[in-house]
Amino acid sequence: MALAKMKKVRLVIARSDLAGVLCELMFLGCVEISPPDDLLADPELAVMVSRENAETERCRADMSLLEQGIDILNKYAPDGGGRPSLRPAITYDNLLYETDAENCLKLAKLLDTLDSLIITLTEGDKAEYVAQIAANAVHRDELQLCYDHYRIRIALALAVENLLGTEYTLVLSGWIPAASEQALILKLSRYACAWEIADPLFDESDSIPVKLTGPKFLGRLHKDGGKPFEPMTADTKYVDVIRGHDQ
Predict the structure, then answer these.
(1) In a domain, 247, yes or no
(2) CATH of the domain at 167
(3) N or C: at which end does the chain have fewer Cβ atoms within 10 angstroms?
(4) What pLDDT, in 10s, does the model give residues 35-74?
(5) What pTM does this model have?
């Protein structure tokens, strides 16, 4: 068990390429995006940029509603007797841009309303509403897909909240394992962006995230007080995100 050598990375990204670059960072799973406090401490830079805004809390609320809708379907119309099924594979673009979020949220609200009614009714009066819920079980996969859509949107929103922007560009600051440097450069070279990857300065030692190399189970034995390395990843619950043919 050893500590991986970390390097600091700074990117300047064209706004038009932001989605593509963040997608690459998700798939690489080797870049931790840091709050831009150190960049804002530079008075010359601070007057030229501003913090980016994202709809993180609204996305969290929508995802919670979808999760509740899925739980209601599983409660009244269990899928496959509870047996685990294969996770479908879907491209990043389809998951992020072609999900029918509006109708899925409407359905989740309907399921929540029906479930609330059932709770207040006597046993003999519940059948009609239980049947309505069961009839919507055909849309379970759509709700699960939309739930993962929001997981990705939240990951993107959290990343965007840590970016600084001008009218045409965005600035990102973070950390990567030194071993991932060339893989990152290879991906970034496809986009309109500039990057700086360097060893941390001595006065940055307290902010360097800790990444352990070796078997995962040994990580539980590590007692170092440093902040763990938390890279941006395409983390989903119901589907596997794959790269499209054009990526």
Answers:
(1) no
(2) 3.30.70.2170
(3) N
(4) 877 777 778 777 788 888 888 999 999 999 999 999 999 9
(5) 0.82
